[in-house]
Amino acid sequence: MPQTGKRRLFLALWPDDQLLTRIVRATRAEVRGTGGKPTPPENLHMTLHFFGATPDELIAPLIERVAALPLDPFELTLDQYGYWQRARTLWLGVHETPPALAELARDLSQISHELGLPRNRRVFIPHMTLARKVSRLTPREPPPPMHWPVNEFVLVDSTLGGLHSRYTILEHFG
Predict the structure, then answer these.
(1) Burial of 147 (0-12, 13-18, 19+ CB in 10 A)
(2) Domains of the chain (ranges plus CATH)?
(3) Span 13-19, average pLDDT
(4) How far is CA 4 from CA 60, 84, 131, 158, in A?
(5) Does residue 96 contact residue 77 with C-beta atoms inside 8 Å?
(6) Strand partners, 153
(7) Over the stretch 82-128, which tens digit does the pLDDT of each residue have?
(8) Which stretches of 16-165 are assigned E, i.e. beta strand?
(9) End-to-end CA distance of the chain
(10) pTM higher than 0.90 for the full model?
(11) Which residues on neighbouring strands pair with residue 42, listed in sequence order?
């Protein structure tokens, strides 16, 4: 549960319904084969920056700073599976990160740092978490390439609890 006066926030790319349907259909067998806990379709997204517990008084300055960023539209090609053994997580990602996406992730990390929020210290790997608590991996054939024209990203409030987190989009940018 978030502390009083704080919200658990992150910025993400959010697929439209048509792309979401294609992702779910294309990855269904792979996810089932892991024995893991699938990410609910409505929660599938690509995190750009996770802020964590964000004080209410920083939300307006955060939105203002992020809204001022230029977003050059770009296209992602979701075309590979990945697995993080330590986290037991299966994900869907890209072979090549478009320069505009890498730059956006760097800019968001810098804004976070300037506002006194966590800076992203890990290498940015664009991905969508498909399943957690994976117990086995099947031989993974690459998924069919799925093209994602990106012209916006969103600020999301994440509420923990129940079987899955609940995500609420607070703001659109782009």
Answers:
(1) exposed
(2) 6-173 (3.90.1140.10)
(3) 98
(4) 17, 33, 30, 14
(5) yes
(6) 173
(7) 999 999 999 999 999 999 999 999 999 999 999 999 887 788 999 99
(8) 37-38, 46-55, 74-78, 80-84, 89-93, 127-132, 146-150, 153-159
(9) 30
(10) yes
(11) none
